[in-house]
Automatic annotation (TrEMBL):
Domain of life of the native organism: Bacteria
Similarity remark: Belongs to the arylamine N-acetyltransferase family.
Gene3D superfamilies xref list: Arylamine N-acetyltransferase, Cysteine proteinases
GO-annotated molecular function: acetyltransferase activity
Designated name of the protein: Acetyltransferase
Amino acid sequence: MHTDFDIDAYLDRIGAERPKRPDYEALCHLQERHLMTVPFETLSFAEREIPNMTDEFVYDKIVRRRRGGGCGELNAGFALLLRSLGFRVGALGGRVLHNGHAPFRGVHNGHVLLRVELERSYLVDVGFRWASRRPLRLTERGVQKDEHGEYRLVHTPEGDVEMFHDGVLRWRVEPHPRDLDDFETVMWYFATSPDVHSAGQLWASVVTETGRVSLFNRVLTHHGAGGKESRVLATDDEFKAEFEKWFGIALSSVPDLPESTHGI
């Protein structure tokens, strides 16, 4: 663990209370607070910076710099917090199978999520735009309802687990634990390869009390009970203002982004 790791500083960053014990109720509280305060954002990838998932890096980025990050950084940071509070947690490698618009084949180990062991096994994810608000019961075969929709875990004949959200297959994951450094090559690939599906693009998302606010390049989308509403942030000043308002990050400049007309 990071020698300078401050549990209270991390809890303050996400506006969470220190749990009395590492139980299911505490896990639900911490997951919800993380999703509502630390955004999923690929600014580093858009700027061709190579992130990593070490304790030192994710703590500095999330807590000290008050940034968000990609799935690997956010779930690595959350795992660091959970372990420090006494939870048994491991990282799992997955493959994203839907990009918000259509099915596609993401790279292996292109998604990182967590497996937490309590009275049963749970899947926890604070780094995915369509993540559940609460932990998903790994062995549950039926629908698990959540503020973010209906989730269903399907166990494949090969031993993998597939997650369906509102009927859409979002990802497939291998249930055995991995070391975080297993994902270093994938992080480098995402940040440097022009062949990556999202190369040079910016994605961001954060959970709100009524739903979710997402960004895809210059298109800002509000998701709520009444559906979704999207608009293009045409000027740099408007983009920087909205990015800071919703994702808590002040930009000195706006990355050179592809033109987009649809939100996520």
